[in-house]
Amino acid sequence: MTDQTASSLTTGPTAGPDEPVLATTNKPEKPRGLWGDAWHDLRRRPLFLISMVIIVALLFIAAFPGLLTSADPSWAVLSKARQEPSGQAWFGYDNLGRDVFARTVYGTRASIVVGLLATTLTVLIGGTVGIVAGYVGGWFDSLCSRFSEIFLGLPFVLGAIVILTTFNAEILIPSPVRIITQVVLSIAVLSWPIAMRIMRSAAISAKQQDYVKAARALGAGAPRIILRHMLPNCLAPVMVYATIALGGFIGAEATLSFLGIGLRDPVVSWGVMIAESRNYIQAAPHMLLFPAGFLVVTVLAFVMLGDAVRDALDPKQK
């Protein structure tokens, strides 16, 4: 065997002078970060896909209720009161002769808006206090922790009754915006300590990491360290809580409305509809069945989404 033959067996055939040389090197795959890896994992979870389909459908209904029904949710025809579902009214009529299907569709908006706003405000308040307390530590951390325990020790329903009853006593003719604002503020005021504790624990852990110590050694100020270095690494557990809490806040709105201290006329929501049906459960069960069914499916969808996000962000599940 000649040296040229041995070389060709070792390195493979060489291209001629007129033949193009094909590159055979493969570029290494770009490493994914925490959120990129979580998204890559979520797309393969049936639980996430099912919950997202339900949530997207609910958001579409909330944004464009007029595309699903042309009926006015407040239009009442007393002669049709408590009529059962039919081709004319798919969900039947309520005790005042209003279309239950139209009210269920339009009620989606108020229920989801309350859940989204309450979750956003809860995370903003609790997250801000938690990350600052975790970074500063010392007496400020102890003060914030003791202050949050006051709200944690207060039962949610009892606290909401006190707050909303106080607000409602000062209002003679409430507007829909004011009613929704009161409920959102009440939920956020009573729920922010949970988000605060989650963010505080994540901040205390992140403060001990080398990248925070390096930034502090290079002269970075506290605001820059918190916003640029700690916050991106502390968001994951808070986002999981927010996703699950959103469904819980929608259920909390229905609970408060059922008790008569939450949303009320002229606002249309699932909780208001459930409250209006409590005296007609045996005579007209459809008044309760359809809004309660939408409420259960919505809460379940957000809980499923939160479970999927938690598993995707949990390194122990990898």
Automatic annotation (TrEMBL):
Q: Which domain of life is it from?
A: Bacteria
Q: Name one GO cellular component term.
A: plasma membrane
Q: Which CDD domains does the protein's record reference?
A: TM_PBP2 (cd06261)
- Record-linked PROSITE patterns: ABC_TM1
- Which residue intervals define the domain ABC transmembrane type-1 in the entry? 108-306
Q: Report the subcellular localization.
A: Cell membrane
Tell me the membrane topology, using the record's own terms: Multi-pass membrane protein
Q: Which family does it belong to?
A: Belongs to the binding-protein-dependent transport system permease family.
Kindly provide the name given to this protein in its UniProt entry.
ABC transporter permease
Species source reads: Saccharopolyspora aridisoli
